[in-house]
Design a protein that fits this description.
5-stranded mixed β-sheet, Nucleotidyltransferase, domain 5, disordered N terminus, 14 helices, alpha/beta
Length: 364
């Protein structure tokens, strides 16, 4: 806790007056008896300000979220200082909305859980400092949460999943494969050696100027690629998945992005257009990058399944693969993973899309 307090000191701190006003804003009957422990979860690791109240049986009592996507679309990517300010502007309101929806008085909380890593330092700092102020005022236990562990365990809120199981976390900021042997007991099998798949999709979408495409102007990069890919030919360009001969479970997406960029430059010359204009072949490029990414993810995941089964780390039959994170919401990637799990006698489980992206429920 001393370390956390020192860390919080360099970030935004709400004044005591604001915290007291926040606490006084709740009008609940005192003395209510709750049979279950109740946790407030706060998430500010990147560009979503989220909070939720969950009890120990898994009931979501209240939640709220503020997305910054619309703001960051205009700047072509997440600007940490902008994300930090938006978290500052919204965190008190979001926490208050989650508590109001739950009809739980802050004094009746059993603990406050908050993401402390990994993520954008400026964004994390806002949630951390707000939480520590609230912890100090309420005299409640503070639970530091690892963002990726929360994603990995979210599936146990919606499905009866026993340990051990394999988890694939794929998003705009992360990419890893791990064997989940218990709560806080993870065996890391593979991770991205450079950028995350969602980050790669966003960069390709920006290079293709999809924000200027009439069908994609309000979509994030990943959503725009998925949308256009449905109209394109995935075999129009012949691109091999990265790390084809690497005998491990790691990922790499920078090389794929560079190859796609070269294809885009070539097509721009062929079509006689300048960078910043939308190519007529944008749908084919989107389909190609999505297909190649999916193949790469599936091949590395297949290696992880074989590794675990050969060493009896997973059941030989009906082993569970959990896929979570924003990219796991991509229908094409999910279908490719279903084909893999069917072929390897595994069960694929994915949290609902709203729980795949960052949220306060997974933290609570």
């Amino acid at each position: 806790m001393l370390i956390l307090n020192k860390t919080a000191g360099v970030f935004f701190k709400p004044s005591k007056r604001k915290v007291y006003e926040f606490l006084r804003s709740f009008n609940f009957h005192p003395g209510t008896l709750f049979l279950h422990k109740i946790v407030l979860g706060i998430e500010t690791s990147c560009d979503d300000t989220a909070a939720a109240v969950v009890d120990e049986t898994g009931n979501v009592l209240g939640e709220a979220i503020h997305s910054q996507t619309e703001v960051h679309l205009k700047t072509g990517g997440i600007v940490p200082a902008v994300a930090q300010q938006l978290h500052r502007d919204n965190i008190q309101r979001i926490v208050q909305e989650a508590l109001s929806a739950s009809r739980i008085s802050p004094s009746d909380l059993s603990a406050i859980a908050t993401t402390i890593k990994p993520g954008l330092a400026l964004s994390l700092g806002v949630g951390l400092s707000f939480s520590l102020q609230l912890v100090g005022q309420l005299k409640k236990p503070f639970i530091p949460i690892h963002h990726m562990e929360a994603h990995a365990l979210t599936i146990r809120l919606t499905n009866k999943v026993e340990f051990p199981f394999l988890v694939l976390l794929i998003s705009g900021g992360h990419c890893l494969l791990a064997l989940v042997q218990g709560v806080s007991d993870f065996l890391l099998l593979g991770k991205s050696l450079d950028i995350a798949p969602g980050d790669m999709l966003d960069k390709v979408a920006r290079r293709l100027s999809l924000i200027k495409h009439p069908e994609c102007s309000t979509m994030s990069g990943g959503k725009a690629i998925e949308h256009l890919a449905k109209q394109g030919n995935r075999f129009h360009f012949d691109i091999k998945p990265p790390l084809h001969h690497a005998k491990n479970c790691d990922f790499s997406f920078t090389g794929l992005q560079q190859v796609i960029n070269k294809r885009i430059m070539k097509k721009e010359k062929e079509e006689g257009i300048e960078e910043g204009q939308v190519l007529s072949s944008a749908a084919d490029i989107a389909a190609t990058v999505q297909h190649t990414m999916a193949c790469h993810i599936v091949k590395r995941t297949h290696r992880a399944i074989l590794f675990c089964k050969q060493r009896d780390l997973l059941p030989q039959n009906n082993a569970v693969l959990v896929a979570s994170g924003g990219v796991a919401s991509n229908f094409y990637v999910r279908r490719a993973l279903e084909i893999l799990t069917n072929a390897t006698q595994c069960t694929l489980l994915c949290p609902p899309p709203r729980l795949c992206t960052d949220n306060g429920i997974m933290i609570a």
